[in-house]
Amino acid sequence: MATKLSRPMSASDAAYIRQRAPAAASLFRRRAAMAKDSNDAGQGKAPRMSKRVLRQAEQVGRQIDEKREAVKEAVEELEAKARRLRELAASLKPAAKRAVGRLRQRGASASGAAASPLRPAVARRRARRESFKLHLSRLAKDVDPAFGVTRGGLDALDGVTCELLERLAGGAAGLTKVGRRVTLGERDAEAAVRLLLRGRLRREGERAARAAVGRFRAWR
User: Residue 132 contacts by C-beta under 8 Å, 6 or more apart in sequence?
Assistant: First the structure.
């Protein structure tokens, strides 16, 4: 049905209509597509996605997977480090217990000797005892100048060090006797370290010992 115009169309009106017609057609097509997508969603159909959106979604998914794998590897590495630290603590626990027991026995004997008033005042020379307290305190200062160690901590560390050295010396001496030799060599000490220590403590001990032997040979 033709629509009757109230007035004749001028040339300017025709030009305006020709100029706005493409924009109106594209707007009509967009609204029709939106209405179709809403109808499809209401009927249970998934709306169509453009290829660009699909590519972006795949890229984001890959990034999420990569980050998840990186987090998983970091967690596994932390668990391995914690496991090694637990093994190191378990290997040092018996020696620390024995050192603490010796310190308690020495403290009890010293207090008992001071408590007896009838003991004659005899000047006795104190037995010389090997101690690594000075070296341990210097080592702590080398690690961090602001780091300090209490007297009880130095006693515990000194006891652990002496216990480890006694065990290593005994093991190396036994290997020397087995080999029917008189002089204890560096191979005997290295074998004793491998037999008595475990994990990271053994590796660090071997590395430090080899470096010390190399410095001694270079100096000599």
Answer: 157, 158, 161, 162
Q: Tally Cβ neighbours within 10 Å of residue 177.
A: 12
Say if CB 100 and CB 156 are below 8 A apart: yes
Phi-psi region for residue 199, left (φ > 0), alpha (ψ -120 to 50) or beta?
left
Of 132, 207, 203, the residue nearest 163 (C-alpha): 132
State the DSSP code for 183.
S
Tell me whether residue 199 is in a domain: yes
pLDDT, one tens digit per residue, over 145-185 is 888 888 888 899 899 888 988 998 999 999 899 888 888 88
Residue 49: partners with Cβ closer than 8 Å, 6 or more residues away: 57
Chain centre to alpha carbon of residue 22: 65
DSSP state of 45: P
Is residue 201 in some structural domain?
yes
Q: Which amino acid is at 190?
A: E
pLDDT, tens digit, for every residue of 97-120?
888 888 888 776 655 544 444 444
Domain assignment of residue 9, yes or no: no
Domain encompassing residue 88: 53-107+132-219
Looking at the domain assignment, is residue 14 inside a domain?
Answer: no
**How many domains, the chain?**
1
Is 99 within 8 Å of 163 (Cβ atoms)?
Answer: yes
